[in-house]
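re: ur question from earlier - yeah i can do the single chain one, its not a big deal. heres the input i used so u can compare w yours
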Amino acid sequence: MSDDEFGTAGIRERVLAGWAAAPVRFREDANAEEDLALGGYVDRVVVELAQNAADAAARAGVDGRVLFSFRGSTLVVANTGAPLTADGVESLATLRASAKRDEGAVGRFGVGFSAVLAVTDEPVILSRSGGVRFSKADTAAAIAGLGSAGLDTEVRRRDGQVPVLRLPFEAEGEPPEGYDTAVILPLRDEAAAALVRRLLDDAGDALLLALPGLERIEIETVEGRRTLADAESRWHVHRVAGVFDEQERQQLLADRPTEERSRPQWSVLWALPRDEAVALPGVVQAPTPTDEPLSLRALLLASFPLDPTRRHVAQGALTDRLVREAGSAYAELLRRRVEDGDDVLQLVPTGLAAGALDRAIRDEIVAVLPGTAILRGVEDGELLRPRDAVVVEGADDAFTAVLAPIVPGLIRSSLQFRTALDVLGVRRLELAEVVDQLGVEESPEWWRTLYASLAGMVKDALLRESLGTLPVPLADGRLVRVVRGLLLPGPELPVDVLKEFGEYGVRIVHPDAVDPALERLGALPATPRTLLEDSAVRTAVEHSLEADDPDGIAHAVLSLVAADPTQAEGLWWLADLALRDDEGDLVPANALVIRGSEAESVLDEDEVAPVDRALLDRYGLPALEAVGVLATLGVVTASDVALDELPESLNDLDGIEDWAYDVAPDGSRYGATVGELAAIRDLDWITDDAWPRVLELFGSSPDLRRALVTQVRVVGPDDRPLGVPPYSAWWIRERVMLEDGEPLAGRADPDADPVLASFLDEAPAWTAGLDPEVRTAVGLVREVGDLDADGISLLLERLADPERDVEESAILRLWSQLGTLSVFPGDAPEQVRVLADDGETRVAEAGRAVVVDGPMWLQREDLGGFVVASGAAADGLSDLFDVPMAQEVAQGKIDGAGTAADVPAIVRELVPEVPPTWWEHEELMVDGVEVSWWVDDEGAPHAATFDGLAKALAWASGRWDQRHVIRAVLNEPDRSSELLVDAAFD
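and the output i got, formated as tokens:
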């Protein structure tokens, strides 16, 4: 081997001579190298050196191996393959000329080696054929040695920066054992070392796939050794390649550089990672990485033409052709993956493109895929082209499997891949459209299979709307196309009962077609309750008296009710069910009684009849009672009752409209409501002589008692609640008359206050055995507060009867109770009973009476007769009698000032509340009338006597109960000690 095997000296001479002759060429070379080193090749040193290694292996016809060894501050890249040649050295020193003209070469521009300048200023290449190096320092020295003023000026302008790869120098050394060539890169600084470290960490399968000439890449760093090999075992790969014919060369390569026009080969490789967690570069590789973004979840390596920076794909006819080849190749890759059992919908391009080239590739793929068999049919698994496929909107896998035999081309779909299927042009059928086309010849078992497949879909409210018109086979053989409202029979329902109801229009699903999905779609479980609530059943019951087969209807209804009598609660219209009485006649259930029952004993025999004994034996007492047959008196209930629009269930209650008017706030039913109402039915059928037994029965039955004694809460339009008598109590008070022709209500309760009872009619003796609350509910009066307006009017009338002797104590007690009433009669009495002088009472004209609410006014006999009460009771009596208060007819003004005097200390000690001063009068006159004591408007006591002083001090201090003690100490001061001791025990 000669000292200058590659003729480096001659290259240097030619380059230096050119620079000296024309410094502008130096500037051009420096700029070009700087553009490559700092621009397109700034982070491509690993890729470019691997590419050179792949080209060397291809030229030598061997499997390529490359070793990247990064130790300290030096990167050594050793490879197998063709050794360095003189042409190769000249190519390295010529920025745009390439020595790689082999058809399999990857590099095409002869400039890739400039990538090393991103990390070093002193690259060295050692090969079995010799060595060469480049040096920034030696190049600068060679330029300085020329003594060219023009070159020196250029170097100064560039701050000493000179082209590194234009002047090669011979180098000594051998590549590592087992390799043919080695590139040695002393790294410039720590930033260069960090870049190399990152690029080596990023190296992966994509590099091997881009460079098929490399069998293995080994990377050694201080962290350890990593080997890249057998990349295709980790990827699904599809390659296509070809050679352009002469006409294609002229059309596609006319605008490409000469080096490219001499190589008409093209290639496209798509790769899908077998492991979905593998990170993809996200750029197009041509075949090494570019800056063109790729949004597809795949690796694309193609022989796209590049612009001078080698970072972007050049536009033009060649790129357009390769885009079409890439689109077809991608479609074929997806077809093969589907053929192998994969689902590729997630690989269909959707969303926004990442760039112009990405958009072009995606558009081509989207144009090709609809005609590529990449979808698998549900029925037989055959591959289908998207344009031939169909999806049913909203159908899940289970439903799709059932539909497959009747919908050609049906494939599975999901919301996740809706956009992908739309991109592929897959035809969509609306779920409702498919439902409408379902056949009518299928068996109930087939329909059950179909319904079972809907288990997942019926959870979606929108899908339920489309499925609501599903055909459903009924037990009577019909097929209906609506699910909502159908009844789903359960095993507890007798078959003959189901058939019976079918004849009356009740739509019951065929037992062999029942599936839970139907319930989600609006069908109702056919419990006894749901069957009884069905509108067709109600219609049949309400018209059963005129029906062709009333006994059949009765049998069907009673069979259901007998299974669970509680299921009939609240279905008041069952009382219209026509049943046979004991003479064989048809009678509504609510007009039948059980023979020998309480109901039979108290109800009018002209209104009710005993039920047929055979019905009782067959269906049982609970079932008959549930439909309205009476064994005892019954209760009707209703909720959320509007008083101005009473529900049908209350229509049979005698006088219910009158009750609603009577209890409505201010007499207006509009807007008034009752939350819960319970009423005893058939009160108007009770015979007159049965009331003692009936009221006793009401007290012993919890339901009846509750309906009678519990007040009803009425809420008016202003949302204020009001407690009113329940309907049953109201009816008895209004309608029940005793033998004397007078109502039971308003009579004295057996436990009434004797004074009050003396003014009321006596109740029958049998009422003493009734529940006290029952007696009150039906209108018996235990205390004044039990009286209604009419009762109060009667009491006032009897109090004003002059023939009656009323003791003072009795009238005082009645006054205290009457004053607290909240109910008033329509008219005030013309005469009232007042106190008389002799401790008795007398009757006076109302206009000659006053209400006295304080003891000092009792001295004013000039005002008229006295009605006496205190506090609120006094105001109540004034309103009740329409009699003024005493202070409303007299001023109560004291004539004269009187003489101020101190209240004795012993009085203040006994009653601390008394004022300290009182006013003494020789003669105390109030409004011109003489009195013995008075308390003026300021609360000052005035008196003319010791007895009057005691009362004045007691009233002024608010201690009227202490008037006798005060009087005692005033009259007998020597008893002061005794009274003080006694007061200690108050």
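The first helix runs from residue 8 to 21. not sure if urs matches, ping me
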